[in-house]
Write a structure and sequence with these properties.
Length: 595
């Protein structure tokens, strides 16, 4: 309609004012909700042709459209804004077109498809996944779904941080205090067990520091000379040197963690097309660094460490290899980026990583460009905000993180309690109930996190997320289940909706409002893809569910005596359910048929 209106307005200006006008001067937007109308023309750019007031110009163009364009049924002028009302017949005809489309995503396909890698999760193998990882995984997986839906070739990747000083901390603690404990002997998930020793390392390490300080050692020296830290550094050197005993222990403890991660990923509905490991890519990174040093792109310090001087780029000096030859995070990120480009020849590589790493990714791009990799312009840091609990920020070293598995279980249990209190599942089998509790619990968790602008910090409140009213996942799921219930009853009554006779119905305001909102779905997906924001789709789904419930409250569907109107409302309800299902699917949220 916006395109047709532009042409009709250009025609009006040509006939009324004998002037040709360019598309850029025809500014059309949706009418604000506090005014009557569907589309608004900004009149001010046209005053140069009318040589008249904004009000008179708007009135003249409005009258022309009403007289010569039947789809415009009325108008009003507020200062320099012409608010146009579109006829019910046009909305019904447009609705018929939407119903006939094979896919609700066909109108949001990009003209040029790109190969896009989306990296998310990026866990360390010294601790289990936690609430912060949940936000990361949900954002990354939804971004993959949205970009794929718009026609891009998207590859889901993960980089596992499986080496380095932090990994050795868990290994040293297990050697010193573990007494051979395994996931099997302890009954703990492997990632939980390894995380236990990471926390224990920090506890014992702090005790060693305190003891040294009390004996007269300076705090900084105490941190470096504490026995546990010295053992950890020695282990890292042995690992990089390929020491058989250290490498075997590393493989064993990492295998425990991977098994634990797989369970959590499955619960979240998250997976990957390609997993990279820092233990492989850091080697590629070291070769890249040494080659750049040879080409005088980098420099060697007096202590033999290797650095990049990025001050000409407005950045800082950056360490790439320590004096003992061991690699830093940046080294492996260089190797990973090069490996990925060589394998996939991507147009974009999107890193889903928290905003505390903003500087890191500025440095990564600057380094790769300086080293002669022009594709580095395609590296995009999807910088998202931190997630906290009402009681404050989590700290892994202190063991105050919210474990992902515990949170998922808590959400499902809360869903169970709330659902049973509502008392609507009495005729369900226990297996059906558990499946519904799982869908509601995970739907609440995913929606609550994804509805927030990803660039903002957020506070996750489990109690608020599970509410069946308001802007929550369960509210949208319940709306979908309500529509499915209507169709089960229709089937029992022998009523089958017919999408080919919609034009015969006389429809009301709420039905028009629903059609207007359904029309926005493709545009919403396109905006979400362009802005990398699942929140755009999440909040659209809530608005659609809320609008449907108002319609459901005001109008009878199966009780409507006029068959044409009843049929129209059934088809409208069906399309609403399909859009909700598709939209929530782009967030990775399952929709129960019954609740």
């Amino acid at each position: 309609m916006e395109i047709v209106l532009k042409e009709k307005i250009k025609e009006a200006v040509k006939i009324i004012y004998n002037s040709d006008v360019t598309d850029e001067l025809i500014q059309i937007q949706e009418t604000r909700k506090d005014f009557k109308g569907d589309f608004t023309l900004v009149v001010f750019p046209l005053l140069r042709f009318s040589k008249n007031t904004p009000e008179k110009t708007g009135e003249t163009i409005g009258n022309y459209l009403v007289d010569r364009f039947p789809s415009v049924s009325g108008f009003n002028v507020i200062k320099g804004f012409l608010n146009l009302e579109i006829s019910d017949n046009w909305w019904v005809a447009y609705f018929e077109k939407m119903v006939s489309e094979k896919s609700h995503l066909e109108n949001c396909q990009v003209e040029v498809a790109e190969t896009i890698l989306v990296e998310y999760s990026s866990p360390n193998t010294n601790k289990p996944l936690h609430l912060g990882h949940i936000r990361n995984n949900l954002l990354g997986n939804s971004l993959y779904r949205i970009l794929s839906a718009t026609g891009h070739n998207v590859v889901k990747t993960n980089i596992v941080n499986d080496r380095g000083i932090h990994i050795c901390k868990s290994m040293v603690a297990w050697q010193n205090f573990g007494k051979g404990e395994t996931p099997q002997s302890s009954g703990m998930k492997g990632d939980h067990l390894v995380g236990k020793y990471y926390v224990l390392f920090e506890k014992e390490y702090r005790a060693e520091i305190e003891k040294l300080v009390q004996a007269g050692t300076g705090e900084e020296e105490a941190k470096n000379s504490a026995p546990l830290m010295k053992a950890t550094r020695e282990m890292l050197l042995k690992w990089e040197a390929g020491d058989i005993e250290v490498v075997e222990l590393w493989k064993l403890m990492n295998s425990w963690v991977y098994a634990g991660f797989d369970v959590t990923y499955k619960k979240l509905g998250v997976d990957f097309d390609k997993i990279y490991y820092e233990s492989d890519t850091y080697k590629v990174g070291k070769d890249i660094v040494l080659s750049a040093l040879k080409d005088n792109i980098l420099y060697r310090n007096d202590d033999s460490s290797i650095w990049a001087d990025l001050t000409p780029d407005g950045l800082d000096q950056k360490l790439l290899l320590r004096s003992d030859g061991t690699a830093v995070y940046m080294t492996q990120d260089l190797g990973t980026a090069v490996d990925r480009f060589n394998e996939f020849r991507f147009d974009k590589n999107i890193y889903v990583v928290g905003n505390e790493q903003n500087y890191h990714f500025q440095v990564l791009k600057a380094l790769l460009k300086r080293m002669g990799y022009p594709w580095a312009d395609g590296l995009i840091h999807f910088s998202y905000g931190m997630v906290e609990l009402p009681e404050g920020r989590m700290k892994s070293r202190e063991g105050t993180i919210v474990d992902a598995d515990d949170l998922i279980e808590e959400m499902q249990e809360t869903a169970r309690v709330v659902s049973l209190e509502l008392g609507k599942l009495s005729d369900f089998s226990e297996e059906e109930k558990e499946d519904i509790f799982r869908k509601i619990g995970l739907g609440a968790l995913k929606y609550y996190i994804l509805k927030v602008d990803p660039r903002k910090n957020m506070t996750f409140n489990p109690a608020e997320s599970i509410d069946f009213n308001g802007n929550t996942g369960p509210f949208i799921q319940y709306t979908y289940a309500r529509i499915k219930s209507v169709f089960r009853k229709a089937e029992q009554m022998g009523i089958t909706p017919d999408a080919t006779i919609l034009i015969e119905a006389k429809i009301g305001i709420k039905e028009i409002e629903l059609i207007k909102l359904l029309r926005k779905f493709s545009e919403t997906v396109s905006i979400a893809a362009a802005s990398y924001s699942p929140a755009v789709i999440a909040n659209y789904c809530y608005e659609l569910a809320r609008e449907f419930n108002q319609f459901y409250h005001d109008y009878s569907i199966l009780g409507e005596e006029d068959q044409a109107i009843r049929n129209f409302r059934l088809v409208l309800s069906k399309l609403t359910s399909e859009i909700l299902f598709t939209g929530m699917g782009l967030l990775g949220i399952e929709m129960p048929e019954r609740m």
